[in-house]
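Subject: DAK2 domain-containing protein

B.,
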Amino acid sequence: MTKLYNDPAEFSDEQLEGFVDLYSDRLAQVPGGVISLPPKTPQVAVIVGGGSGHYPAFAGLVGPGFASGAVVGNIFTSPSAAHVYSVAKAADQGKGVVLTFGNYAGDNMNFGIAAKMLRAEGIDTRVVVVKDDIASDPQFDNRRGIAGDFTVFKAMGAAAAAGKSLDDVERLGNLANRRTRTLGVAFSGCTMPGAKTPLFEVKTGQMGVGLGIHGEPGIRDDVRPSAEELGRLLVRTVLKDAPEEPGGRIGVIVNGLGTTKYEELFLLYRTIAPLLRDAGYDIVHPEVGELVTSLDMGGVSLTVFWLDDELEPLWTADAYAAAYRKQGAPLGTIDETYEGKSTALDEDSLVEASDAALEIAQRVRTAASAVADLMHEQEAYLGEIDAYAGDGDHGRGMVRGSDAALEAIEEAPEKAGPASLVKSAGRSWAMQAGGTSGVLWGASLEAAANTIDDAAEDFADDDLIRAVRAFADSMVTLGGASVGDKTLLDALLPFADSLEAHGGSLRQAWAAAVADAKESAEKTSELRPQKGRARPLAEKSVGHPDPGAISMAMILELLGKSL
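Prediction pasted inline below.
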């Protein structure tokens, strides 16, 4: 819901005043909209426009390499013919004008009238109407213009900036239009400034498929799917409507419609990109973000722009608009062949493990699998107790870390000894789990691995006890905490101390140490956190155990059975 406004009727004009003040170094306000400060060399003026409420479209796309001017109507309302004329006349540089907008009745009428007015004054004026929304009509010429506005505007803006003639700018705009397809879905409707209810509603757990960008609902309602299922739906539907002779290179836009978070868009792109590549396409300069919105609508759209030898340079060309900037990386500053660093073990560099070490390595493999299974089982519980004074992600972090460790161990050569396995597991845990906990676990596993000799002919109880102490000391050194700070050390340090002090067999000593760790972990419910994210919410934490201490005690108990 749009919460900030003065008089709702003045919302569009007042926000535009603030926008122009912000970007007064490169834009000028004229009646009806904004224009870019003129380039030194005159060029074709590309004028975009429509109702406001779609930012960055339309005013945010004005600048070198993009639009020369934008006509800004009221919220979701076509600007008047007089305002279109005003902006175009102010932006004209003597090379002709192209008016471009989405295919809506009001826009067609008002931009069309303005074009006649401009031509009557001797200004050569062309019109390019965007028609990318595949859900709105099976016939191309009857379709609405939605997020595909961006590709068409960008192509013409780049062509004009390159000094192309009015004929060429118009032709390339129409070509881009014919090679652009979009499908959108909505999770929630948008609310006009001052209104108490949205323009349409989407039932809980559903989504509207084929929405418009002026508050129009979708053409049908479906059950809201997972991100992967939605990605498959969008790709499958858009590719089914590919233009003739599509070629193998595409521009891609995953567009947020107002309240869909960027992280959600990245998650969706994670599914979309591989599907497009599997379909045989090379993705060129993809865009993920809010480019053509609809106030506070929850939803996303996928746009595919089929490129050719003429369109690709326009799609990748530099641009400098208020809300969109593109600049190619300077040559020689990046290594395009870089494939990332691997945590996988290098078989040629492994120490030749003894038979005794290989027997221990097999126990490490079993233990890693058991720990990963345990963290999956306890993920919800660990997240629940973390949520009282943290962000509720401890269970997820432990799952990510233990899964990464297990994957590294499973991919290790059969001849890898326990030191090599634990060290590789630690590196993967640190890289994949994230957060402070992930770094601590990863580095401390490596510290423990450094105490083990893969070439040793036999192993004694003291070898395992020494590895546990190295693990604990690393946690203390890196984390800077101690017993009583309400961290995982409240379970780990009592365990390590008890293991070293207990006589008898290692099995008995381990069991006794686990009992001490579990008791200490439960007692953390009485403590106030002194470290980490929970510290600012110390009072909320009292009465609940520390999730790191609880997960540590769980793992130590399990390791006693596995090792």
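The radius of gyration is 31 Å.

T.
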